[in-house]
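Let's practice the habit of predicting before peeking. Look at the sequence and jot down your guess about where helices and strands might fall. Then scroll down.
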Amino acid sequence: MKSLLILAANAAERASAQEIVREADLDAAILEATPQNVVEKVQQHLQDGLGVAVARGQLANILKSQRTVPVVEVVLSGQDIAVLLDRACAIVGHPNPRIALIGQRHMFSNPEPLARVLHADVFLYYIASEEDIPDALRRAQGVNTEIVIGDETICTSARAAGMNALMIGPIRESLLSAIRMALRLSDALLQEQRRSKEIQSLVHYSSDAIIRLNQKGEIVFTNPRAESALGRTAEALLGKRLLDLEELVPSTALIKALESRQDTYSLVLQFGRVSYIANIAAVTLEQQNDGWIISMQEFAAIDDLDERIRQERYRRGYIAHAKFAQFPARSPVMRALVEEAEAYAQYDVPILITGEPRLPKSRLAECIHNASLRRKNPYVAVDLSTIPPESQFDLLFGRAGSGDTGLVSQAHKGTLFLLDVHTLVPDCQRELLSILRNSNFRRKDTLEPIPVSIRLICSTFMDLMDLARQGQWMWQLANTLLGLSLKMPPIREMPEDIPTYLEEYMSQSAKQFKKRVTLTDEAVEHLCRYPWPANQRDIEYFCMRAIILAPEPVIGLAFVREKLLPDMEQGEKEQSMHIVADREELAIRRVLKETGGNRNLAAQRLGMARSTLWRKMKKYGIA
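Done guessing? Here is the structure:
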């Protein structure tokens, strides 16, 4: 029996799968199945063997609901969706078509970037079974959908309802990606038994005391180190509630940790006269609590607890990748900025990076961290514009008694980078100033100062002093941050760096869409004169469109002018980009566009009163 099973819904899919298996010389079986017989066919093939199934749409959904075999669902790749959307646009035959994708959940990758590039409105409708198809079609008709993309059953129903339909045919790239994932999963399953035995040995001989609790808080497993710590044998401990053990000194923090069913780190537990540092991990099975795993070490056995905690934070991804050696800085203005940033990096001082939106401020912050004395410690980056104002304080500074220490504590002895710092709420501004002045902060509902050592880097496209004059920012904090600031120039002022950004984003898009395309030197030279008003975002979307629409591996100046930037030299056309030098005007235009012209929401995001926004819109002639 073959352990890899590829399921096809029709003869075309079967032929495509056979071609991939033959070319890659895979040890896999291919079965053509229907929703009515797929479970029976898979069970007959695998019997008691260990295997992984690869399936798409309804077949995958049925197998996942049975839970009898691991299933890797075929998710349409960006390239396959791009081809489908492009064909749908051609069928509709006019700009800005309305297209509906209908299928099982997880069947499609995010089509939104492709829709923007192709100037189409794309709607996603998920179904769980064939019974949901009529409702999905009615919803699609309700938004005046002009064409439906789906499998054979969906397309048949759409045509019966008088709608255009495009059937998803063989999807080679998506199937190939799913097969690769299934092969990795199959290898993992084949090694699971051996790994399970290895884990049992590691737990048995671990220097940590390890206790497993069920959902009732009862002990169901202990390793020898835990038995020694508690002074009882495993037989005497099994079935006992941890909180009922006489040796355990009552701990409110432990009770809250178990009640919250959240992971808790560095909790102090005391058994008799011995204190332990404990980490509590909540175990979740099928979205239900299945108990906890507690690992403990004696204080006496921990030589440098702070160092171990910081190393754990580093392991969890609080790291910076960018370095000055790879930072695009061919233009004189950017070279000067990088030289200044390198000088600041050597000293533990707060830095504010300013400049228009969509500039590589985050990358520059990572470079500063990696060139500093704190480079081996955590780098915690927070995009404040994505965090609701009411959630900022708890996220940054934690909550007293909850075990949630906050991101500021996670950055201890490292760097904290706050993106779009102008959106910081007043309570957070006060604590940030306390950190910069006194190296401590306080959580809500507590008077106890918490010491912390961080290197602070912030970025903004707003004028903090202007916000302070409006009463929306603290003067002291604005002055402190503006003391050492780095003003990043817009892309249009550093044309020498544009080829580097083009190469970087063309490479990223080529990898995303699995299509290699390059620009001629003449085209690159021409693009270096383009103003790129939205900075990196413009370059990123340009490269995506170039990769998707390119008719051949190399595209030149004529194609760029005619298909990619037809309005480059005609600033009065409707689709021409409005270029502004004033950072405040650019910010207002961007936020109004993102909020669909909602002035109340725009004013809130910009951190100004609605009347102030109205005056500035009048000043800049913004309708």
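How did you do? The two ends are 69 Å apart (CA to CA).
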